[in-house]
Amino acid sequence: MSEPAAPLTTKSDVAYDKVREKILSGDLPPGSVINQATLARTIGISTTPLREALRRLKAEGLVELGAHRDAKVTELRAEENRDLLEMRRSLDPLAASLAAQRRTKDDIAAIRASLDGLRAMPSNPDYEQLLHHRRYHRAIYRASHNELLIDALEGLWDKADRYRRFALEVDRGPEARAKKDEEHRMLAETIIAGDSEGAAAVMTEHIDTSLAARVGHRLHR
């Protein structure tokens, strides 16, 4: 889930940010039809900047646009979840390994700050909890200092948050959540210590036991 990199300056930016939040937070669930006139009134803008925002969200794969200005939130698909998981199994451990090799003092400070107060997400996370989780992982992959890798993981995380929320509809239980908290702590420690192999190993386990890895069978039903 991306946070705005700069202050929102246009009505289209405002619409994009608000609609995107509604989609990723579950207020606009997968498959739901978007009444553009109603949504524009809710946001407090006209339909023109809203349509511009929807075109941006379509490019990200979050929205489908019909020929007659119909709009719908993209459905969740087992195949896309599989593809995201396969990509993350390769790229996230690479980013963690590189972060352990290349992290700066500022990177270490960002990782520690994002870890502060981070807890495994509950069954019905709010938007801020999703953002906090994303801040932590963003602090790690930005510490890789590989711009192509960072851009790729930004895109993967944008799509993966919807599947993460879907998986959380089934409660993991306190033991599974405690394990995730420990993985977050260990991942930060190995990167800060400069242990590239250890960081990659912890990240691999983190992904293999992740929410995305649990959700595939439910999407096939």
State the gist of this model.
Pfam families: FCD (PF07729), GntR (PF00392). Helix content is 68%, strand content 4%.
Features:
Four Helix Bundle (Hemerythrin (Met), subunit A), 3-stranded antiparallel beta sheet, mainly alpha, 221 residues, Arc Repressor Mutant, subunit A, 10 helices
Mean pLDDT: 88
What distance separates the N and C termini?
A: 26 Å
CATH superfamily of the largest domain: GntR ligand-binding domain-like
Annotated CATH topology of the largest domain: Four Helix Bundle (Hemerythrin (Met), subunit A)
Descriptive notes:
The chain is mostly helical and 221 residues long. The protein folds into two domains: 12-73, Arc Repressor Mutant, subunit A (Orthogonal Bundle), CATH 1.10.10.10; 78-214, Four Helix Bundle (Hemerythrin (Met), subunit A). 68% of the residues lie in helices and 4% in strands. The chain is built from ten helices and three strands, in the order H-E-H-H-E-E-H-H-H-H-H-H-H. It has helices at 11-25, 36-43, 47-59, 78-102, 105-115, 127-142, 147-167, 174-193, 196-208, 211-219, and strands at 33-34, 63-65, 71-73. A three-stranded antiparallel beta sheet has the order 1-3-2. Strand 2 (63-65) and strand 3 (71-73) form a beta hairpin. Helix 5 (105-115) packs antiparallel against helix 8 and helix 7 packs across helix 10. The longest helix is centred in the middle third of the chain and has 25 residues, at 78-102. The protein is globular, with a radius of gyration of 18 Å. GO terms for molecular function: DNA binding; DNA-binding transcription factor activity. This is GntR family transcriptional regulator. Keywords: DNA-binding, Transcription, Transcription regulation. Residues 9-76 form the HTH gntR-type domain. It comes from Saccharopolyspora terrae.
